[in-house]
């Protein structure tokens, strides 16, 4: 894809893996500006014991030993409660380091008022917030942490025959498997030009959904002209982390239509072997440079960007296993980003905004992926106390014209409140499905009824605000379309995933009374009905995106929804499944594994036509003849919703 051909848009909601709801303004600068609205640390309560007990303001004039109240009553002006609280805090601080930095490379500042010096800086602090290229990691296959960008490009774009050792030979014949133009990668000037194209693709397509980098800073620090190693002087002069550069380039290769990659795909059945090689080399480079082991802000970002970059099929060896997502969470916990008291001490709004966004991306992705892939969530509700963004609806406009308005901040807050509420539901279900007792005995009836209630309440409270609006305009742009459809599908696929869980495990009825048996069947029918309507909804949304060619540019946002809805509709023998099949086929442009998913769903559909609805187990009693009946019709966007978040089972949606 040439630089002028990429889709550009700075508006519309953003989403990230897997199905993460992000705000409508996805520009990184706005993310950082919003971080400035975090509440400051609470002022220490210095009231004396008498005023504290009376719950009144303790007013002590300068130079006086007692406050005005104690002077008038002739009370001893003691501060025993304050002293005890301070001692408790000091003890806690001794047990757990609470230092933070305003910069990742210079002038670290402690939680107190005195700067950290070389004598009192703890080792964990240097590892977490010091320069990444401080010499801790020596080299990897000829690359060191101080290697220049041209040297890194020489390694990343080396001929494929040297993948196993990452030691590179310059032989044109080795490039043949990457297409007719790949031999041009031997030229340093061409490598630099090609890398710049991939960087632009990343920022125009991926960055709109995963705003973890500052585009201006990244471009400035890419330093393709560097010819020798140089010492780090300041943060703005620090070279980019080699694994971060590799990750951005690998993302760009997924979606770029550069002539070299077009020739590569033409030669290899529509798939780019160069793009696959870059993913493998990026992963190996990150592992070698201990990205997954050393808590560092760069390592957080690299980990969270690598996870959705990879194959998303957990059944494959190179598929989604949550390793990099887990690594990112461990790094965040190592930096204590889950503590509000630590977050508010990050004075640099750029660093604070990045870490806030990274935390919520990791937190929500952990919850959703655990439910989808039947894993135990790494995080729980009480593992963090940080807020996202706070804004005063009545606040005056800021003097900075580039800062978001209070209305925009509240809009951000609304999207994250919706996402977090749905993530907590998903996290609760995931923990239940993980338990061995569930595998043995089934899902408790009370839990099923609770899930049904929680999802219904979420729909009433949030779907109309974050889903596809009923009054869409004809010029719906790329980011707005993909983002709104993804947030809408995020909710609906939860019903489908719950249906499959109930079908696999069944419902445990401890009472086993006529009343409880009736409740079990009622719950099955309710979930069946919701899952059917949800699948039809997702199929319609997928049809919109596919007809516009948007899913070939989507970084793993809608694939889970398309696969689950497609499997459900295929087993019922409903023709709406072809919307999901076509969507997954288009997805295979960047994620090869989705083509196999499309084939599997097509086979399920053919089997259902021949034998009737198949592969249902515990939920078979809820499959009624009406669920298999359909009336194919075309419905517009306006007909998709009725304005209150409810949905219709349509087969097609156009814009």
% residues in beta strands = under 5%
Mean pLDDT rating: 78
How many structurally independent domains? 3
Strand order of the largest sheet: 1-2
Span from first to last CA?
A: 25 Å
Structural class: mainly alpha
Helix content: 40-55%
Poorly predicted spans: 1-28, 92-139, 163-171, 226-234, 389-399, 631-655
**Structure summary, number of beta strands:** 8
Description:
- The protein has 25 helices and eight strands.
- It has 655 residues and is mostly helical.
- It folds into three domains: 49-127, no CATH class; 131-290, no CATH class; 435-654, no CATH class.
- The strands form four sheets. Strands 1-2 form a two-stranded antiparallel sheet. It has a two-stranded antiparallel ribbon with strand order 3-4. Strands 5-6 form a two-stranded parallel sheet.
- β1 (15-16) and β2 (20-21) form a beta hairpin.
- α13 packs across α15, α20 packs across α22 (577-587) and α22 (577-587) runs antiparallel to α23.
- This is Zn(2)-C6 fungal-type domain-containing protein.
- Keywords: Metal-binding, Nucleus.
